[in-house]
Amino acid sequence: MPLDGALLYKLKNEINLYIGSHLDKIYQPSRDELVFLLRSKEGAKRLLISAKPGSARVHFTEIKPENPPSPPMFCMLLRKYLGAARLIEVQQEGLERVLTLVFTSTNEMGDVIYPRLICELIGNQPNIILADENGIIIDAVRRSDIEASVRMIQPGACYTSPAKTEKANILSQKTEDITAAVLTKAELPLSKAILDTVGGVSPLVAREVALRIADDFDKPVSSLTKGERMNITGALNSLLRDILNNIRPTVLTDQKGIPKDFSFMPITQYGKEFKEKLYYSFGEALDAFYRERENAERLHRAAQDLFKLLSVLITRTERKTALRKKDLLACADREKYRIYGELLKANLYAVKSGSSSVSVQNYYDENLSEITIPLDPALSPAANADKYFKEYKKSYTAEKMLKRLIEEDRRDLEYYDSVLDALSRAESIFELNEIREELYLSGLIRSDKKTKLKKENDSFREYTTPDGYKILVGKNNRQNDRLSLSVASKGDIWFHTKNIPGSHTVLLSNGQSVSDEALLFTAKIAAYHSKAQSSSGVPVDYTLIKYVKKPSGAKPGMVIYSNEKTLYVTPELPF
Length: 575
Hints:
CATH topology of the largest domain: ibrinogen binding protein from staphylococcus aureus fold
Number of helices: 13
CATH class of the largest domain: Mainly Beta
Radius of gyration: 35 Å
Shape: elongated
CATH architecture of the largest domain: Roll
CATH superfamily of the largest domain: ibrinogen binding protein from staphylococcus aureus domain
Largest sheet: 6 strands, antiparallel
């Protein structure tokens, strides 16, 4: 979710604790990111100011970003005006998403100045603007067009605030009045009415407030019962308390532990789908959320070439398979060529040289019907018969070859699908490099700079059943081979989704009898680490490792197995 005004209010309160701090150092790691090192009696704190679209924010951070070899011009300008400055005030008008940091410093003439850094965390064009005490812009991370007619963001221009919404300020207005405003939006869903009425709250918060009112955030305002209408004021008062009181921030994570959303209040709308993780400070919560999200984005960017390669390979192979199946269909008619040859051979005396066709009795038909055979007038009757025998033999050979090639195409598509599945579930650059190395060894990509992988990182995913058995899951095809063919013992139990790409999963039972609960537990994990992760009723085969074999010449991760049983499960990962 984007940072809303209410959460920014909480962040402002955290920064307020460091009013009076000296600005020790200023860094600009990227075009739209600043890091201020604030020093006080309590020690040093690193303040991150980001104007990145989609992740604009201001908060204390423990992450130390890499800095460019030479500071950008905007960074140099900040050092000129804010070097050795002291933070004296943090301003926010209502719950608007604009935070102003006011500093005091001295200029070259020794005069006291009060520069301010305006952090606009709004929409797709967030900005960081340096202005003087009179509101004259010194410079900005993003300058506007020189001919801008709405807001001029240029050095020397007078700063004007972004257009404010007409929404209610819950910090200063009576909740009863806000309730009345919500009720005027009779045709809107309740959460949308709250979002359109109350300033500074995100759609996530609006839905949560609506649930507190009516247990249904999509319920139209006009359909609210008398009791639910009375609940609106109470829910708004509860929201106000959440904003004003010291509540630990919440980050919502999925079953993998990957952050999906964050808030300044408890979130219940997702039920068991997401897990709430509490943090002691909003800076710590945002660090965790954006670090994971940016890692995922960086990983996706790094994997783009592999996604593109696999997409091309799949498309190309599917096209080849379609053409080969079409040719195979034509081969199915080859029997007529043998019949033509046999009938011609038996009726050579009746065929006149130079004829374009001949009609003979078809003794292959139970009714002995007459059949017309096309002929090449340039060939003798015997040569025409030989021609049909050659066509028959050619079609017979082509059919065998096409069936073999179609089967190879099927195995290739199965392999590409398995690599694509592993690639979509890779969680680190190391795992991505493992897949890249696998494709290199399979001859699908050129060596380029072959990544040398550290063996100590080459570990399987591990889980434990409620009764104490260890479960190992491969992260890619090479790991799948190693797990199933080398690491696991013959008495261990092997799991894999039936006819669906996924990871090899092994329950390390070593021949011991395991409970049905342990089998079901492991099957759910196997289904989760597969392409069917978001499905239900997923078939998962399981058998002993001794029944799992790798055919000679099979691609990485490809095995055959027997004596299997099947469980139907909903994918689930234990928290």
